[in-house]
Every structure is written in structure tokens, then in C-alpha cells.
């Protein structure tokens, strides 16, 4: 997937400025497709020159005008073609898993701190995902039935939540194993 496709999806969900788009990447779509502000602005410029997106100037009070982007017909066509293309399942490259296997040839206890650090990072990510879910997806009885776009956003977020929970369970298993091996030494 190219960053262009993630931007097209985000702009179809809601048109916005480059800044607003970058904020969305930080809050939601970026959980699954990371991009820096510079990358986003560079790609927006290219997409505009390719005719995939339109930009209109929006006047602001006490600030410079901003550009608000929306998806043009050519961008919708490009996204449709990409959506129709088959994709291969991702191959997993997991450096920590290789280190864990390699600990058999070193000191397993030395890896405990790194696994704990990794676990903290995944705990923080899960906390952000759950907070985003509470913020963006209130219970159906409170908010009413969501539209298809919101349902699909939520199912992607639920996948991220499930992945983080699975990763934390695995890391707990790794830590228990490393502690057991360290106590034997």
C-alpha cells in the first residue's frame, strides 16, 4: 500500500487540510499506517498535481489561509483500482522474536529488561486504542447505528486492540519463560 491510498481513504471519510490530515494520522489511521507530517505534505502536493485530489483555499481568522483537500474523480478511480487488487498477507519480521530465540545462546535473564520495555510500549498503545474507541465509538444505544464507514473504522480499531492484547499475552508468556530459565541458572 502506498501512503496515497491511506490519504485517499482519510479524505473520503472527511476532507481536510494537511495539518488536519496529519492529526488524523496521529489519532487513528496512523495506528496502522504511520507517516510523518513532511511525508503527508509531500504526497498531498504530488496527488494534487496528478489530479487525484482537489484543494481549495479556506480563509481563517488571524491566521494564513489554509488548503482544504478533497478527493477528485481521478483519486476515486485510483482508490477503486487499488481496492480491487489482491494483496499478499504480510510476512512477519519480528526482531524481538529472533532475540528471544537467540537468548538460548546467551544469558536469558539479560533479555528480561528489553521484553519488559517492549511490553510497556504495547501497554501504552493498547491504552491509546481503548481511549480512542471510547472517544470515537460510543455504545450503539447512545449514538445510534453507525454508517458503513464508521463500522469499518471500528472493526479495524478492534483488530488493533485484539492484536495488542494478543501481543501482551505473548510477552507475559515470554517473561514467565525467561524468569523460569533465569532462576535455573
Question: What would you say about this model in short?
Answer:
By secondary structure, this protein is mostly helical.
What does this structure look like?
The chain is mainly alpha-helical. The protein folds into two domains: 1-82, Arc Repressor Mutant, subunit A; 93-181. The chain has eight helices and two strands. A hairpin with a 2-residue loop joins β1 (53-60) and β2. α2 (18-27) packs across α3 and α6 (112-136) runs antiparallel to α8. The termini are far apart.
Uncertain ranges = none
* Shape, per Cα inertia axes: elongated
Beta-strand segment tally: 2
The succession of helices and strands, N to C, reads HHHEEHHHHH
- Provide the number of structural domains: 2
List the helices and strands and how they pair.
Elements: H1 3-13, H2 18-27, H3 37-49, E1 53-60, E2 63-71, H4 73-84, H5 95-102, H6 112-136, H7 140-143, H8 148-184
Antiparallel strand pairs: 1-2
Helix pairs in contact: 2-3, 6-8
Supply the key terms.
185 residues, mainly alpha, Arc Repressor Mutant, subunit A, 2 domains, two-stranded antiparallel ribbon, 9% strand, elongated
